[in-house]
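Need tokens for this chain, all 303 residues.
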Amino acid sequence: MNKPIEHIKGIIPAIFTPFSENGKPNLKILHKYLGYLIDAGCDGFFVSGANGECFLQSKEERSLFTETVVEELGGAKPVIFHIGTINPQDAYFLAVKAKKLKVDAISSVLPFYYDYSIREMAEYYKKLIQLSERPMIVYYVPENNGVKIGNNEFIDNIVNLPGVEGIKYTYSDIYQLQILANGKKGGALKTYGGFDQMGISFLSMGTDGLIGATFNLIPEAYVKMYRYFRSGNMDKAMQYQQIANRFSFQIKQCTKSSYKAFIALRGINVGKPRACWTDVSAKDIAGLEKILENVLREIKSAE
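Here are the structure tokens for all 303 residues:
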């Protein structure tokens, strides 16, 4: 049955799916990869999301990958299993798998591309919750999937569905996020900011945690930012947020493949992306090495 998700909070990396040279998911590196993030102080994992190239994988690949993550962690950290996909039948398959794995929560983007009505979206979430028997963290990312919902529609049709316990909000209108949270009957909706560069802004609006991609790259900066914020030391929290934002600005100037290339420089070789992004060149790698050197120096100086 659905269980509360009070324990899902803090800094939660949206992890990559590592690929081997043959293009298949690399399960062998998960022990090292997850250990690197746990050692940095991360509080949980968002698995099989957009950062994990979920829409470029089969449902079987996503299922096996998440199963391996759960086995590696052994309950040490909470797992949010993102099961959203363009084909609802695949999402239903993954919902059943989520029940078997006993993940801490499931998540899904809003159904997209086929111009679903709000009622159809609500029925989709109902079925995922029923099949998985897991708490649902709705994944709202309108700038990527093009699905945007007004406050009242969102609250009436999705936020107040039984089993919807949280929302991963990857959008800059954090006023809306607070409205959605306040619209939950009983006031129990957990909220997670999805824009890494707005971490402190989200936390200031009362979010329970942050879920992001760049947490994989410099997890120590975000963990320190979060902990200083929670302790009330806003000056130090802002110092680490600024370090992280300078880093984010720099790496966003590079190719999208640079995220995986960067974490390889930290000793975690997650392979190349499946997406048809431009490959990193030797010149790109040299630039990433310089970025890594600079950000680690900044983090050390801030301590």
